[in-house]
Amino acid sequence: MPAEIDIFQYVIFAVLALLIFFMFRNSRKNKQRQEELKKEIVPGADVMTNFGLFGTLISVDEVSNVAELEVSPGNIVRVHRQTIAKVVTTDGESDSDEPRSVEEAMERANREYEAKEAADVAATEPEFGERVETVEAADVDTTVVPEKKTARRPSKKASE
């Protein structure tokens, strides 16, 4: 009995050690991510806050932890420095596949419609090596044959 308790204790200590290892690793990653963000936060950068406000960073006061964002021309918002979630990059590549304008959405819809039409036409044509049988009117048998009705067998329960 004492041997089972020792094995159980070893398992608990191993799980606890793994938990502590992952906690330290996670905190190290978060600290590294914060340092990278701190390097990217410079005046003139386009940023997004935790609550979804986009703007251009005007200034950051490290002592009072206040950042000033220009959300539109002439409108400056003061926020806490730690509410800046990320620096928004506009290098021409968008993260999502969403259209950026109505014209682009219409162009995509037209391309998809044309591709669908071409696929429908291609679907009606036989593929290479596919056998196509044509049915002529003389080959079709139009006589109707009535089905034979089979007699039902009485069930065993009914005969008993």
From TrEMBL:
Compositional bias of kind Basic and acidic residues: 97-119
Pfam families named among the record's database cross-references: YajC
GO terms under cellular component: plasma membrane
Keyword set, alphabetical order: Cell membrane, Membrane, Protein transport, Translocation, Transmembrane, Transmembrane helix, Transport
Residue ranges, annotated region (Disordered): 89-160
Domain of life: Bacteria
Comp. bias intervals (Basic residues): 150-160
Keyword Cell membrane belongs to the record: yes
Any single biological process term in GO: protein transport
Low complexity bias spans: 135-145
UniProt xrefs under SMART domains: YajC
Keyword Membrane attached: yes
Transmembrane segments: 7-24
Topology class, membrane: Single-pass membrane protein
Compartment(s) of residence: Cell membrane
InterPro entries per the UniProt record, alphabetical: Preprotein_translocase_YajC
PANTHER family for this protein: SEC TRANSLOCON ACCESSORY COMPLEX SUBUNIT YAJC (PTHR33909)
Family note: Belongs to the YajC family.
Name of the molecule in the record: Preprotein translocase subunit YajC
Organism: Glaciihabitans arcticus
